[in-house]
Amino acid sequence: MTPTKWVRIWNERLPEVPLTLTAVSAAEASDMLRGGGADAGFVRLPIDRTELSAIPLYTETTVVVVPKDHVVAAVDEVSAEDLADDIVLHPLDDTLEWERRPGRPANVRPATTADAVELVAAGVGLLVVPQSLARLHHRKDLTYRPVSDAPESRIALSWPQDETTDLVEQFIGIVRGRTVNSSRGRPTPAQPKSKRPDTRGARRTPAAGKSTGKSPRSGSGGPKGGKRGKPRRRS
Distance (Å, rounded) from C-alpha 173 to C-alpha 180? Predict the structure, then answer.
């Protein structure tokens, strides 16, 4: 993992709280979280979620690491079938779940991905890994290409279920892209509602100089005048 962006945002938002990073292998990450060695960590799914919470983040491209002068370096992408004639190393800390591994197996499995990369540089074989591991172990004499039909690795943020502290919530928010003004994970104080004036039973008072349009005696809409009716004929 390369969490540089998230660490930078953390330092901007919480400069008074130091964030310490510890690099561990994918196989060790879950046990480290359960043992209290870290407040949160990035893991590769699937994991045993006993006592752990996990939020899937993204799926990572799988690549094959090859020497720069290898024929694979001349193309943009390969399939597992394209690697059938090559020795493909399978380190003991492999994070990919294969139904059938590509290529021909080596006589000995390297202990770690780092050891396997050294063997690729020595011309012993090729290595299929998630792209972030190829970047992590980058060498000038090696390159990598996507493998179209290889299993993919899913990345998740995980932490102990019983240790979801405010600072863990802050880190989850940063990783998930919440803005600094987001209220997610923080208690939001209740805002008082504005009250409308109660006009029940109130009487309107006409403005000065204006008439209500009603006569206090007649209750009609105009001034009281003489009686109206048919004119009487004179004889």
Answer: 9
